[in-house]
């Protein structure tokens, strides 16, 4: 929460939930990443918050961009990034989308299997590809599935296939899991990456880049280490596994870049109990799982919530959204502590909501509009 | 799948996933409900599919409308419904939204606690309210939480409170759980409703309506009983619990009205394995959890999928969406059987997708547009 956001909300007159993002915080975050990992190029993960204001700011600061689709490539270009600063980082791409990216000048593509390599080779000849490998995601708060990446031993074959088809077998990428609270999580993946570098060299292929992915956390309820700690720990791991031949590296922060820059203001619509004897109250907000808080899925991300009655005694509440969908409940298995004096009409502030909120929101579910977003 | 949808898709030239809804099927479903429960008024659950074409058709057939928000009330009015055919069925409403609904002429409101009754009494004086009671949702495929409704013993107090505040204590509502495959599920809830009717009468309040809710299933992979069976079983339960003093009844079908009217055409973007020895292939589509298939959350709803290679031997696949989100996986715990010969570029048809798809889709997640929708 910043003074600028506080001042904006103080004078706000319109109705409904709103996300306010303070661009000064984004600027500070970018500078912190650049300083913590001075030899690493920063590719902002556009999907975290693709607002033109965020992209333009980051483009002007010199950031590169990790994109998930042609639409995101177009947004990065519109924000002033040149094509050589854009990575098409989705391992799942239609061949005609790869062709469009190539027409835009993009030459850096993620792959995790031979079929994807073949698509790139056909319509983006000579491009650089990096192969994503699987990580177990231990220590991350947002679930990491096996959706992206292949087993490390397969990556060598995938990169060799790329090399044979005339592509530049550029390197390795991995993702240690979003909202990764353990800086040591990079160590194991870097050990795999180094092994792939050696095995590829044995086959005559010289890899040069390790994409360290994202995963850098933002502060929700629990404390997280600072960017500096991540930088130092990752550098140690690079040194440990690559010795004095440290490859080019890139990082893809998303949540870590914009998460703590945003605050959602929401209103308490109803406070009720299910029976006279119920211990736990239900608190219903005008925003829920389908309005921007999708990351409360399985109660994964636990946001910090400020109320106008902080300081009053707390009691556990089930927190739910405003739609007629019984799945639209944010915190129930582990109820959320809120002031006992909380009332209908109170305005709450949900902190750390600058990433993965607005663009997740449903287009018109139950007739509710998508989350309004202001960048200041 | 109907001939009209097949013909539409045959001549389609644009790219990306699309939902095609056949309005003739919606018409048939409406008539089947009207016939199966001839003394029951049908309130279509607008949230299931609020497309103007669906609402206009149902309005012309004489349907009433169950709405979740002021926006849905406005859509129902725009489609030709008069305000006396609209219920504001969300138990979670801002007081100013109740006031707007009242200005539009709406006089029927859902409540499940005294605080909500007080809002209605203040800004919608004299309106009819029905109190929603909790159901356990056993037999339903979509999870039913305790989000809506109160314990039956509390409902009498809620309705008495409404009566005292000058509202018309109209009746009881419940929901047996969405995609409810057991027609007998209504029996237990009707027993509670009848008990509340008796208790209210003892307190001098004469209730007259039971809202039987939705829950009527559409056919996905498993067989479901027909509407006729539901109608007969529910009527038996009404007779059993209310004898020859059967109250006015309404139903709120959503999924059962539009689910089987829609088919999504999607494309296979990638087929891959995570290692050479993996038994299970990953099949990635150009639609996923954030593009309209939100109801695959926790693998709840299992759609029937047709491929151009049906008839070939099947093998288990993990089915995932196209976004860079590791949670965007539809079926993994229980892999989906698809033809072993399935290839990148194949067009698949996801059946039974007329309800709870298009409006759930994210506004722009990963740069992907919301689900395109055509009504024919």
From TrEMBL, chains A, B:
Pathway: Amine and polyamine biosynthesis; putrescine biosynthesis via L-ornithine pathway; putrescine from L-ornithine: step 1/1. GO terms for molecular function: ornithine decarboxylase activity. InterPro entries: Ala_racemase/Decarboxylase_C (IPR009006), De-COase2_N (IPR022644), De-COase2_pyr-phos_BS (IPR022653), Orn/DAP/Arg_de-COase (IPR000183), Orn_de-COase (IPR002433), PLP-binding_barrel (IPR029066). Its EC number is 4.1.1.17. Its cofactor is pyridoxal 5'-phosphate. Signal peptide: none annotated. It catalyses: L-ornithine + H(+) = putrescine + CO2. PROSITE patterns: ODR_DC_2_1 (PS00878). One of its GO terms (biological process) is putrescine biosynthetic process from arginine, via ornithine. Keywords: Lyase, Pyridoxal phosphate. Residues 25-258 form the Orn/DAP/Arg decarboxylase 2 N-terminal domain. PANTHER family: ARGININE/DIAMINOPIMELATE/ORNITHINE DECARBOXYLASE, ORNITHINE DECARBOXYLASE 1-RELATED. Belongs to the Orn/Lys/Arg decarboxylase class-II family. This is ornithine decarboxylase.
């Amino acid at each position: 929460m910043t003074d600028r956001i506080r001042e904006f909300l103080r004078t706000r007159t319109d109705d409904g939930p709103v996300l306010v993002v303070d661009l000064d915080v984004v600027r500070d975050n970018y500078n912190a990443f650049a300083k913590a990992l001075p030899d690493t190029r920063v590719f902002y993960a556009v999907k975290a918050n693709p607002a033109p204001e965020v992209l333009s700011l980051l483009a002007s600061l010199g950031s590169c961009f990790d994109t998930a689709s042609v639409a995101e490539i177009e947004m990065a270009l519109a924000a002033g990034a040149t094509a050589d600063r854009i990575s098409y980082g989705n391992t799942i791409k239609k061949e005609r989308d790869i062709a469009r990216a190539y027409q835009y000048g993009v030459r850096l593509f993620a792959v995790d299997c031979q079929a994807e390599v073949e698509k790139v080779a056909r319509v983006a000849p000579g491009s650089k590809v990096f192969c994503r490998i699987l990580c177990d995601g231990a220590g991350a708060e947002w679930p990491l599935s096996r959706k992206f990446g292949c087993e490390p031993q397969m990556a060598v074959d995938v990169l060799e296939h790329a090399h044979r088809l005339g592509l530049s077998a550029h390197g390795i990428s991995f993702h240690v899991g979003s909202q990764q609270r353990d800086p040591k999580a990079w160590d194991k993946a870097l050990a795999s990456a180094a092994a792939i570098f050696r095995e590829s060299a044995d086959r005559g292929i010289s890899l040069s880049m390790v994409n360290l992915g994202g995963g850098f956390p933002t502060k929700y309820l629990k404390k997280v280490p600072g960017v500096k700690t991540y930088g130092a720990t990752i550098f140690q791991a690079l040194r440990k596994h690559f010795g004095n031949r440290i490859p080019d590296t890139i990082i893809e922060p998303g949540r870590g870049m914009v998460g703590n820059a945003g605050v959602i203001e929401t209103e308490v619509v109803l406070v009720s109990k299910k029976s006279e004897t119920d211990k736990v109250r239900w608190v219903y907000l005008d925003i829920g799982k389908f309005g921007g808080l999708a990351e409360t899925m399985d109660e994964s991300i636990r946001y910090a919530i400020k109320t106008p009655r902080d300081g009053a005694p707390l009691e556990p509440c089930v927190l739910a959204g405003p739609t007629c969908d019984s799945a639209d409940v944010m915190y129930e298995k582990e109820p959320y502590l809120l002031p006992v004096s909380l009332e209908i009409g109170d305005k709450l502030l949900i902190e750390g909501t600058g990433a993965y909120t607005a663009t997740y929101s449903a287009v018109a579910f139950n007739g509710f509009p998508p989350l309004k977003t202001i960048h200041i």
